[in-house]
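INFO  loader      accepted 1 record
INFO  loader      residues=269
INFO  predictor   begin
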Amino acid sequence: MHIDQLFEQVKQQISQSSTSAEISVPANWAQGRTLYGGISASLVYRAAREITDNLKSLRSLNTNFIGPIEPDSPFIIKIETVREGKNTSVVRGDILQNGKVALSTLANFGLDRASSIKIDNHIKHAMEKPNESNFIPMIPNITPSFLAHFDLAKIVGEMPFSSSKTADIHGWMRFKEAPAVFTDAHLVAIIDLWPPTILQMLPSPAPASTMSWNLEFIYPHKIFNNDEWFAYQATTRQASNGYAHTEANIWDEEGALVAISRQVVAVFD
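INFO  predictor   done
INFO  writer      dumping tokens
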């Protein structure tokens, strides 16, 4: 099922007077025993967008992954406006499955305002544009199912569980089947594609999971092409005692910074 079809299911059920939706996501969006985190978070954001003033842009999205979300099994998205102010809005969204909260998100929206403060971003990347020789292939029973929906071109970093000496990942990403219109919900879905930076350092397979994920969105940004390539560079700030703290910058294909991603990852090696 294409991501646009999933977003449409949410859109059809959410309104100011109806703030919950029930859907099921097929197994081709799975990552191990749970759904891919990017699709789960983007579905909650898509619901939050439906009850928020369209003039208010998404400024940040903080997601906590609490438990697994089973594919091919119904779950409920529940949202509520925590605060509706003149300039900003805060919306909370949860995913519940089998009566338990599996994901919880806070979305912060804000209007553009006149300000004397203006500091341009000076963080750039120098990666060459992707080519097929860099693409990560789909390997049956090894590559997560959800990656079939995307193209990834790795520039820096190694495959997971390869005893790498680096804990950085650089590369490019896009939807394999382009959405009809590329929205911020699609951006949320695509940013979480890459495996945790530290997995490549392990000599053999070991479980790992993202505990919390914070996204910040940079404005103004252009209207994205539906087949847009996004550049991604992630680094590990610190790791010890079974936890890693990672940060990533995301640029559009013209080199403009569009998002900043931060994660806390638990690894069980």
